[in-house]
């Protein structure tokens, strides 16, 4: 068990203040105390590469291996807030990356199913999440465009890489009334974070939340 330092603990509390301040600045989407409390507990510094340790609690995205990123804390908070996981929910995450978002969701949901396309990232996150004691996160290496059919339907789906369009297999695996949070590319430079809600007749409605910048969702037969 690696004990954290006081500096790491205080840096994490400062990160919560920065998320709060940014939420105020952005306006319309306040972040709940429940989400902030969870983010105040999860040791983000364990999810970043050693050379990024001192920046772990800054409010910006950081590089991880293979040209991928761990998302900005404010964006993690916002996506979690929009997804609104609760203790009965089974959540699908596409894009495990460092495993940080999986850990946040696992603190709030019954279970998290997370798919990562890059094998070494999937392996590293699996080891770390086990070491940190998470027992309700199930992971696999694969193409998240296909979802995880054996465990569908899901009470919520979060995609942490920018899609060209909303993958239809993910919509199929979402329960009626459930939410999907996904960044979707509008042009080669512009992406928007969308909140999609599935209607009981199988159709869906989509709200644009704000402009974002994510690494691309690969796979999908490309
Ligand atoms: N949620 C992550 C975290 O907390 O660190 C951030 C993930 S990073 C922004 C996006 C991740 O999506 C990358 O690790 C990338 O390899 C993965 N990815 C991209 N396309 C994918 C696909 N089709 N299926 C699964 N994972 C994918």
Features:
222 residues, alpha/beta, Rossmann fold, 6 helices, binds S-adenosylmethionine
Write a compact overview of the structure shown.
With 222 residues, the chain is an alpha/beta fold. The chain has helices at residues 6-26, 33-41, 73-83, 100-108, 119-131, 168-172, and strands spanning 62-63, 69-70, 90-94, 111-116, 137-141, 154-159, 174-185, 191-198, 204-212.
Can you describe this structure?
The protein is an alpha/beta fold and 222 residues long. The protein has a domain at 63-212: Vaccinia Virus protein VP39 (Rossmann fold). Helix content is 31%, strand content 25%. It is built from 6 helices and 9 strands. The strands form 2 sheets. The chain has a 7-stranded mixed beta sheet. A hairpin with a 5-residue loop joins strand 8 and strand 9. Helix 1 runs antiparallel to helix 2 (33-41) and helix 1 crosses helix 3 (73-83). The longest helix has 21 residues, at 6-26. The chain is globular and about 50 Å long. The N and C termini lie far apart (42 Å). S-adenosylmethionine binds at residues 68-71, 94-95, 97-98, 100-101, 115-118, 121, 143-145, 160-161, 214-215, 217-219. S-adenosylmethionine binds next to strand 2, helix 4 and strand 4.
């Amino acid at each position: 068990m690696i004990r954290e330092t006081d500096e790491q603990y205080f840096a994490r509390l400062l990160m919560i203040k920065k998320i709060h301040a940014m939420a105020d600045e952005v306006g319309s989407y306040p972040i709940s105390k429940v989400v902030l409390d969870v983010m105040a507990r999860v040791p983000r510094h364990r999810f970043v590469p050693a050379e990024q340790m001192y920046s772990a609690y800054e409010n910006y995205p950081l590089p991880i291996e293979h040209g991928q990123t761990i998302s900005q804390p404010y964006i993690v908070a916002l996506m979690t807030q929009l997804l609104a996981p609760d203790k009965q929910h089974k959540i699908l995450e596409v894009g495990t990356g460092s495993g940080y978002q999986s850990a946040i969701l696992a603190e709030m949901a019954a279970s998290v199913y997370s798919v990562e396309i890059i094998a070494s990232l999937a392996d590293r996150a699996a080891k770390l999440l086990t070491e940190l004691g998470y027992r309700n996160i199930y992971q696999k290496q694969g193409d998240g465009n296909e979802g995880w059919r054996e465990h569908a339907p899901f009470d919520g789906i979060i995609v942490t890489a920018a899609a060209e369009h909303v993958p239809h297999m993910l919509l199929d695996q979402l329960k009626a009334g459930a939410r999907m949070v996904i960044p979707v590319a509008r042009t080669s430079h512009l992406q928007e974070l969308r909140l999609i809600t599935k209607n009981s007749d199988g159709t869906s409605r989509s709200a644009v939340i704000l402009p974002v910048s994510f690494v691309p969702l690969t796979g999908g037969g490309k």
